[in-house]
Amino acid sequence: MVLKIKLVGNAVLVFGCNVFVVSLAFADLVVAFYPYPLVLYAIFHDGWSLGDTQCKVSGFLMGLSVIGSIFNITGIAVNRYCYICHSFVYDKLYSFRNTLLLVGLIWVLTILAVVPNFFVGSLRYDPRVYSCTFAQTASSSYTVVVVVVHFLVPITVVTYCYLRIWVLVIQVRRKVKSEPQPRLKPSDLRNFITMFVVFVLFAICWGPLNLIGLAVAIDPPAVAPHVPEWLFVVSYFMAYFNSCLNSIIYGLLNRNFRKEYKRIATSVWAPRLFHTETSRGGTDGLKSKPSPGLNNNE
To answer: What is the pTM of this model?
Structure first.
């Protein structure tokens, strides 16, 4: 019975962690499938020639990806905070049903945050970056709301969660010699560091563009003309490059991701070798599979 409860708890933990990461990956991939190809098309043709509808759809999906990413990063931080700092109530808060509801809530809030763009007319083509994107000068009040909702509030929540986790990590490291079973496992620490790096890179990549937007929103006619074009372009592409960084961070800091990346690369570039290794792994697994009695004893 104890083993069954432990296995169920581990399954809930793995599901809770993975579903948020998958949701974040989906948010990053949204721009890769539609807006980015249109940006390349605009660059090659030195302008936008795909019509206003395509421009609105591209800008909407780009906003969906951006806000969805930060909301999912916030959800991951809260999830890690609850698991590490409030582990006794984690299973109740992040059951299978509750986790799916939370991810659904994240995307509902994301859509609600992006839809007002259609009412204020802020989705426009910007020739400086060859993209249909959010125009910071369209509405001062909406620009302030976007910066606060998309950047300041999530950054504050994530910072609080990770600071509390770091405090616990320091406390655990001090007590690790005196306690035979520390509360924080090495795998938990590695996962936390991975998501913390993702958050730091997001703040670095998106900070300049949001600060420019906030400055422009204060007085668009006076501030906007004085923002150097090179500064806006660099901050814009640096912000959207963040969508490409998460997969790199996962590969550098997580052994499981590196292993799967290698499997995918092998399956694409050397299918015969991949098939041989898969068959060999399956045979070895059958040979080394422990007996049911051993599983029950464990």
So the answer is: 0.73
